[in-house]
Amino acid sequence: MVFSPDLKLKKKGFHYILIATLALVHTQAFALQNAAEMCTSNASDGHDLAVSTPLSMQMFGEPEKIKQEAPFQLLETNDFYQINTGAGLVVEVQKHNRLGTHIGTGDISSMRYHGVEYQNSLKGSQINSGFNQLYASQNPATVTASYVDKNHIKVVVNAGKLKHYYLFRQGVPAIFMADTFSEEPIPNLVRFVVRVPHNKLPNGAQCSEITNNIKTVEAHDIFEMSDGEIHSKHYSNSRLKDWIYFGATGKNVGIWMIRDNNEGGSGGPFYRSLKMQGASDQELTYIVNYGEAQTEPFRMNTLNQYTLYFTNGAPPLGLDVSWLRRMGLDHYIAKDQRGELAFNTVDNIKDSRPLTLALNNATAQYWGDIDLQGHAIIKDIIAGNYIATLYKGELAVATQAVEVLPEKVTTLLPFKNENDPEKDSALWRIGYWDGKPTEFLNGGQLTWMHPSDFRMQNWHVTDFRIGQQSDREFPAYLWKSVNTPIALHFNLKQVPKNSQLRIGITNAWFGGRPAIVLNGWKGQLQPMSEQPKTRTATVGTYRGKNTMFIFNIPQDVLKLGENQLQLSVISGQQGQDFLSPGFSVDAIDIVYK
What we know:
Distance between the termini: 75 Å
Number of strands: 38
Organism: Acinetobacter nectaris CIP 110549
Shape: globular
Number of domains: 3
Protein name: Rhamnogalacturonan endolyase
InterPro entries: Gal_mutarotase_sf_dom, Galactose-bd-like_sf, GH-type_carb-bd, RG-lyase_II, RG-lyase_III, Rhamnogalacturonase_B, RhgB_N
Domain Rhamnogalacturonase B N-terminal: 74-330
Domain Rhamnogalacturonan lyase: 358-412, 427-589
Largest sheet: 7 strands, antiparallel
Strand order of the largest sheet: 9-10-11-12-21-18-17
Strand content: 35-45%
Helix content: under 10%
CATH class of the largest domain: Mainly Beta
């Protein structure tokens, strides 16, 4: 290892101790603020909450001043590297598998904060199930550690086609982490799981707390509690655009996971995935990418950065990651290779749903909110060619290609040919064309309860009268063996010549798709939509690929007065109850020309 001349290296047994003085440099602090809380509804009226804090890799200021408690130092033994941050946090990273435990090479094997151990002594904190199990027939993982300079330490874990970094900054009680990989690991996900004994960190997300479960409801990860509620790690989810950090607390401690701009992730601004589980351990899980409910390919060779931050209980005030540019990280993209995108107008989009501008290509993804004046700006974009998508709520209504240039602000042209179904004249409509089912029956609980939870209202609605009942009385989800067929009744005072029945869905599972009988006329069979292949509705997400099914109605089918539409779910696949084929409803209407 190479050290600067003013540092003194001491050898003590198997330990190498670096003695240095603490020198904190403070910059402006920016608030870390989430837009939605876990285990609650963020859409009581079908509208999203606005995200009040835009995300950028460079946005965060320096954290509050930490009193130095010990020298900033790297120690080495035969079994592990030990890093003392000088801010009350001492971390050990395992160099080899620890016999008699599930702690493997590259795992965090100890996290002591103010002298209290917060790492499970038998299971490591690690990527997936361990660095030696990421790829078939991979070579054993290796670990190295070194000083980058007197203020920074870097630990590198090489594991097959994935490289994981643990990074430490003098005087900051945090483990900065980063990953890059050229091939998706087993089992089709990349996530870092932090394992803290539950009694040390008991206060997590209630909906993912399973310590008092009495039976399994579904698979191996959804449980009924002693009070009848159904909890799961999946119900700790939030839309990516709605959170910056999450964590749990205990006596005089808070442990928080803070994300980057998620440019190397997959799924876009509305993607949901688990974050926490309270069992024998309080598990904090950072998802880099995840196969469950995924709507797009994974991104390779893009650096993903996230931070585990320790406090005395309160959420962290801010975080500076600008120094990462000096750490020699693979696939780090510097500021001079990034640009900005500005957008200044939105025309012809009916309704007042929140608007989101998103960018994506094979390398990266970004998003930003469009304000009430129609303006948006997205910063720190890796230079390249992207598809820009305009979302109304969560429904894509327009796209265009754009090139983002390094060190320049690119102005996005106004979108043309917006496809906003809400603007079409309708005989009647239930729901909003916004890519979400949250305005319907049980819509406020879909993401943090199992459909069978007793707190849900009865899903089985046999009849629905359009114009007399509210959207809140129509089921957000329809299943083949739970609540269909359902009869929709409506009255017409006029009958148009050319009309279409449109059924919009946000997601479907097990091949579910709509079939209709309108006043005795059977609508044409619809093809199966392209959707995620995993569970969705029961694991807290309605997000799939928005699809509109169109039925062209013959002229003699509709009639003056009473009409009846019978709606069913069809599929070539089988299933029982809430695992039977089905779909999530976006909106249903009859439009005419």
